[in-house]
Amino acid sequence: ILFRLNGTLLNPNYRNEIWSQDEEKKLVLCMKAYRDNVSPIVKAGNHFPDRASKYVSVKWNRSLNPKYTTRRFTPSEDAALLQAVQKAISSSDDDHHDSISTGDNNDKSDNISATMTSSMTGKWMSIAKQFPNREPRVLQNRWLDIVSDKNVLRKKFSDDFKANFAARKGVIGKIAAKTTTGVDEDNDEDDENAVGSDLGFNRRKYSRRRATKGHASALLSPDDLMVRVKKRRKVCDEQQPSNREITTTTVVHF
Question: Where is this region: Disordered (predicted)?
């Protein structure tokens, strides 16, 4: 707790503001002066008493270190990064399955989580070695930016998602089925039963709503555009001997 209080921005003596040009020049000069030192970043951090040592290191590695370039990623770099990550995921899956087959039943979950955590950490370090001019964190951020477009995560986890949720009834099962196939394989009757049972909708109302959806002409009929008014009157004795009532219908159009 004491280290976290003194070494992070929780310490009120440290400020979290944009670095000025003078501070950046000073940091570059310090790193040049202490380049032969065992820990040059620590030595340089002593010249910034109002900056946490962690953020001095972050500023140097992510912005000012001449070893890493800050130019835009090229399409060839994006393709190489995706290929490297996909290869690392495939190898980590093999290690993951090997750990499951050799582990005991009681320690299966611990082995799985420990293996995946350690393997992915090591894989990212090996991926970063393939891009020596890119800072490792920048590589991860770039991968996260393009992963949704390239659909890497969906390809990896679609089978697991379908296996876990496609057998469930209702909306979750429908989403799981569409995740891998993109087409709802069930018929309309199953959809009606699933939605009616899981979401509490009235099946009759739901089916009627679906039958008229997208057809404006089916929503209104000619009978909906008129009002039927019933009037009752008694016929005089001179006109009609009986005293019965005669009902007439008047149609009023809108």
Answer: 90-114
